[in-house]
Structure of Related to salicylate hydroxylase:
Amino acid sequence: MPLNIVVIGAGLGGLAAALSIKQESPAHSVLVVESAPIGAGLQLTPNATRLLLRWGLKTSLEPLASSPEEFLVRRFDGRKTLGHRQNFAAEMLNKYKSPYWDMHRADLQLAMFERAKSLGIRFEFGTIVTDIDPAILQLTTDKGDKITGDLVIAADGLWSKTRSKILGRPSQPIATGDLAYRIVLKKEDIQDPELREFIDKPRVCLWAGPDCHAIYYPLKNNTMANIVLLVPDNLPDNVAKMPGDLSEMREIFDKWDPLLQKFLSQVDKIDKWKLMHLDELERWYNEEATVAFLGDSCHPMLPYMAQGAGSAIEDGAALGIILSKVDRREQLPQALKTYENLRIPRSSALQKWSMKQRHINHLPDGPEQEARDRLAESQLYDQQPGYPFYWIDPAAQDFVYGYDVVAEVSDSSLRLYT
């Protein structure tokens, strides 16, 4: 008997769940409610792109993606290169049989949305879920409408209202101590010869410095430059986002690489975003097995490893495959337990690794920073397991990029009901 599934949230995790469910089980009914796109660029590593290709998105996404030809790690002042990997995207494709893409978040969301519609997934935008009764699985919307189903997937993000309702208590994110400046520049607007030369070659560049780091990567087939600056948080406690002060931003980076400073001189307006965190939920579904969580609603992922989108997409893929083995409500508790058992170890490891990478990226000058730099410089062009910056550490790549959620979940879910 087909299930009636409601997804709250049309972000990347919610769309991934909807796509995976409908592709694996066309008979299941899927309705997605609420949400709006937020953000600028994101990095899609092979563990995520292999899922997007599985869902038939290659043709729509490939023309919009940028594939970095090299990966650079520099000391904050630009005086030392700590890591250099040529032919980076080609190497990732060869090793993991799936691309490494830099992409605008809105492009990815739109492509996933269009694909979802083509599969028969229904959407209700401008609809806010104001209440949920998990016992009978009935949602109430801001319009007074009632929506019923067999399973709700809460993909409503870090500030999830569903999470607070199911937990029966407030569940407020907490500040990490960092904030992000997010910058997108159009290549056509940049006339400086040095910057043009840097942009002409698709690349990722990380600058690691005291208490801060910056990362550059291309978007929209290398026609745009995306720069994210992670700095100590000075926003008021109750403010998550506000316009930034250009002079303040430039002052923070006034002793950094002159190349980065040139990029910052091109910026004419800026917002700053408080980076928030939440401890991972101990349980990813409720007692009645009528509500399941995914992505930031249950395991918020900080950006220091660029795995927030990837891990949410993995969650969605896992749910779709597991639910393809379910044909009646009574099987949901076992199915959701399988989902939880498979995904919590993976997300926990990524969260811990992300916090470790934050520490490495933000080391102040001193003995620990000097040891980091010595190790990195000793492996400048030939990184070995244990290299400080995970993106080009071969062991970290195998763990993060080489992970195949389809293979892992398929093996487990095939044993669900035998």
Q: What stands out?
A: Residues 139 and 249 are 44 Å apart (CA to CA). The two ends are 18 Å apart (CA to CA). The chain has a mean pLDDT of 94.
